[in-house]
Every structure is written in structure tokens, then in C-alpha cells.
Amino acid sequence: RATLWAMSCLLGRLAAGASASCPAQVGSSARELCHEDSADVSLLQKAQRRAIVSAVDTPELVDRGTALDHPGSRCEDVGARGWASLQGINYVLGSTMPELVEKAAGVQIPDVAGEMTGFKYKLSGVKINHFHMGKPVADFEEGVGMMLSLHDFILDVIVHYDVEGKDWYNPLFSGGSIRMEFKQKGNVHGNFHIGITADGNPQVELKVGSIELMIGDYDVDGTFFEGLIELLIGIFKDKLEATLSSTIKGIVEKDVNMYLNKFLNSVNLHLPLPGPTSDHHGIVDLSLCYFEIGGDYLAVGIHGAIIDPAQPGKTFFNGVVPKLHQSPPGTFLADPNPNIAMEMSSYTFDSGFALLQAQGVLRTTIDTGNLGSEAGVALDVPTARSLVPHAPVPRGALNFAIDVESEHAPTVFFDAGLIHLKGQLRMDLRWPSLPGMESTVFLSLRAPFSANANITFTEGQEEVVKLALNHLSCTPITILDNNTSHNIEGLNTLVDTLAINVLTPYVNDLVKDGMPLHPTNGIRLEASQLQIDQGFLEASSHISISQEGFAKFIDDVLHGKV
After folding, report:
1. In the predicted model, is pLDDT for residue 108 greater than 50?
2. Nearest in space to 195 (alpha carbons), one of 30, 53, 42
């Protein structure tokens, strides 16, 4: 769901030597960049060529030179799509930008000196004592970019002045300090250029137009000639206003770009997915692939695969990635709250099960020790004789074991509010090893399985995404060796019993911890909702930013901790 936030180009297939095509969402100009014009082009060159594709045709929106050639980058497969509403973006900017520019308080301004009307003057120690900015207002221009209106700049400035007559016959001189208030004159407009970092995070560059400031109230201190100084303020005010206006424009662009990009890069788009052991876990790769501007939303393509942290450049899923919707969910634009949404295709889940398959997690052994008393059966010699009458039953009171393994990674589809899985299991019935003898497989079976699960958010100190398996069926079963004459009619009952009492709890235990969505630098996602509709999993959340958490983040940046 931090998936939802913000919302990485595929090198796995390249590394495997597979041919690849441009993403379906890429615009025409971007497709030209992605075109492979020679079979002799190296895999790395192909990867880098794809990596600079930003799937919009307007260079004003995205910097095409931003290389996405990091090892985990896989924009070729885009399995999820995210949306940020205009009110959500305005909420984020309004909660962060004023805090950012206020950090300019204490900035020293270059000295100002000049001559006018028979006087020489010097303004030194010009210091911004307080810097206030109102909440910015963003707007989208479809297909072009994100525009910004900046309002209510107010500066409290302290200036040390020295004034003296220029000629011998003008003996007047004075020195002291002036406390001045500067206010914004007219409107200030700007725009955000949006790009993607090498780690798949969003990157912005704010460009603002001219900022005009004018002197408002002021207090003169330290002179016997206050009336004269008030007169002379009119002499140097134009130069001081121009100097401050230019300085503030630079501060706004520099500070906002630095802090906001550090803030955006602090959002973790590679979420750890707990596994059964430290060697068996994955990462949900939510790195960004492209941006698009709609009339009242920002859309982003998201890689959306589950990958192996030890092999970030490899994907284990080789199936077809579903085509994503271009428009956000129907309830998204109607929500008056600052919100984000994401549509996740089956690719995310398919890639996860493919990874589990490669890691050997989709394999277990069922024996009397883990069967449990609630199963109602015992895996012993009498049971084997009753289930498989013609099996080579050994002598003695022995137990047997069943090795269960998914032949291929399960595939996923969405329907009726549930996540459905289907696949095929191989089961080997094995006598345990005896002293001086190896363990013996006496029957190999194949069983198609189908299952369904639901996915939910649980709220608390932090929200957690949880998956729970509801139903698992593994019948009817067949014998792999067609030359055998075993009677296995009784095994269907046993296998269904094992599916309910052993395999379902086993799977649920693997995923019981879920995927926690930790707050990041004051950002929280609240009131999250999930809906399965039209073959996709849709999630939406409201954005909440803690001013205290964000202020701490800025302090950490100032002190070099970020």
C-alpha cells in the first residue's frame, strides 16, 4: 500500500536473453527510444535504452535523461498502476513546502551598497529573521505537467545600515538597524518537472518565475535622524527589494528541491515481505516506471513484482502481464479527502509465487508428526493398506510420509471479491528409511489444486497487509506411473483431509505476519480500503502527514543524518 505512495525497468528477461517489447503504456516518442534497431546491440545497451524511457511524450513533464539502469530496474513489466488525486498532492505540498522554506530563516543576504541623492549608503548583515509562505496550490495541465501557484510570501528582515553625505558640504551621517517586513507583490507561478531516480523513486525539480517583494512595515533603530532614514529608505528600497527577490527565488528552488527530493527518496518502495526463514523471503518492488498527467490526477506506472533481494535484477515469472486500466477507480475522484489509489494486477502475486517456487518454499513433507490429532487419520501401515490395497506394504508398525511439491508456481486470478489460485501438486508417498536401507517412494501422484484467499488491511500503530487462505482442494488425484495397478480411490478423502488440516494451516503460517506498512518521516496511510473488481485488486488510502515527524526529518537532513 505504500504501493499507493507514489507511486524500475525489467532486466530479468534481458539477462535470460529473452526478447522484449516496449510497455503498452509508453507514448509514441518514448516507443522510438525503446525501439531495438539491431540484433547486435548488447543486453546492457538494450537495458539502458529501455531505462531512459518515460512513458509520456512531453519532455516538459519528465526528464528523459534520468537513467533507470539499476540492477533491480524492470520497467518492461509494469504490473501495477497508481494514482494521486489533485487534492492529495495539494495536501502533501501544503504540509511540506511551507515547512521547507521557513528553514531559510537565518540566511545571510549579500551586502548592498550604492549612491543616490547626495548620500552614500551600505546595507550589511542583511538577515532573514522569519520566512513565511502560504500553502501552494497545484493544478494539472493534462499531457503537459503540474503547475504551481505560490502565495503569501512574508519576510521579516533585519538590516544594518550606514549612511553618510557624499560631499563635504553634506555632514549628515547615521548608522543603526532597520527591521523590515517584505510582502509578496503579485502572483508567483512555477512548475514541477517530474523524473525518476535510479532507485525507482520520484524526483522533482521546481522552477518558479520571478518573485517580486515590496517593503511593508519597518522600524528604525539606533539614530537621531529617524525622519532622514525613513526618507532614505526610498533611495535603496528598489535595490534591496531586487536583491531579496532574487535570493528568495533561489532559496525556494534550492531548498524545496533538496528537501523534497530527500523526502521522496526516503519513501521505501522496496517493501520486505516476511518469509518462513531468513533465506526465504522477498521484496515487493514498487519502484516507479513512468508518469502521466490526467485532468485531476497524477498516474504512475509501478513495477509491482515480488523479487528476490539476493537477485534484484531477476524475475522468476515468465507469463503474460495483464494490461492495466488507464483511469482510476470510480470512487477515487469522488473522494473529497487527500487520497491515493493503486490497481494491482495478478502479476504481483504470480511473481511472488514464482519466487517461492524457485526458493523451494512450495514444498513440504507431511508425516504423523505434523499431521495432528484433528486430521482423523494416521499415516501408518494399516492406513496405507486401506488406501492403496496393492501397495508394497512393509512389515512392522511403520509410518509413511507424503512429500508435497508444487510442480509449477500457482497462477492467480481475481473474481467475486477473492483471490483465486490454481496449480498442480506432485505427491510422493514414501516409506521412511530403515537401518541399512534408503527411504523408498512407493507411489507418486499428481493432484490439481484450487484455492481462494482474501486480503485485508489491519489497523493499529501501523497498518498491515494480510493474506489468508480460505479454501484449498487437491482432488481428484491420479497416479503418475500409468503402469501401476494400485487402487487409490480411498486417497481422495485423505488428500482433502490433509489439504484442510495440514496444507491450509501451513500456508497461513507462512504469511501470518503479513506486510507491515511503516510510517515514513511523518507519512501515514489511513482508512485504507481494498476491493477486488474486474480482474484487479484495487486499494485506496487517505494520506496523513505528521508535522512533528516531517519537522524531525528536516532537522535530520540539516544535521547530515539523511
Report:
1. yes
2. 53
Contact 387, 336 (CB under 8 A): no
pTM for the predicted model, two decimal places: 0.72
In sequence order, what DSSP letters do the residues of 392-437 get, joined into one string? -PPSSS-B-EEEEEESS--EEEEETTEEEEEEEEEEEEEEPP-TTS
Cβ contact 13:78 at 8 Å: no
Q: Which of 59-68, 352-361, 462-471, 491-500 has the highest mean pLDDT?
A: 352-361
DSSP 501: I
Q: Which of 282, 439, 416 is nearest to 353 (CA)?
A: 282
Beta pairing partners, 301: 81, 290
3-state secondary structure (DSSP) of residue 228: helix
Environment class of residue 171 by beta-carbon count within 10 Å: exposed (0-12), middle (13-18) or buried (19+)?
exposed
The owner of cell 515481505 is 273
d(CA 506, CA 510): 6
> 49: which residues sit within 8 A by CB, 6+ positions away?
33, 34, 36, 41
Residue 10 has pLDDT above 60, yes or no: no
Q: CA-CA distance, 186 to 551, in Å (whole number)?
A: 30
- Helix, strand, coil % (nearest 5) of the chain? 25, 40, 35
Query: Residue 8 CA to chain centroid, in angstroms?
Result: 11
Q: What H or E segment, with its residue span, contains residue 381? A: helix 381-387
Tell me the pLDDT tens digit for each residue of 489-539: 778 888 888 888 888 888 888 778 777 776 666 777 777 778 887 778 888
Q: Is the peptide bond before 136 cis (omega within 30 degrees of 0)?
A: no
- Side-chain half-sphere of 373: how many Cα atoms within 13 Å? 0
227-236, 242-251, 369-378 — which is least confidently predicted?
A: 227-236
CA dihedral sign of residues 250, 256, 259, 262:
negative
Sequence letter at residue 55: A
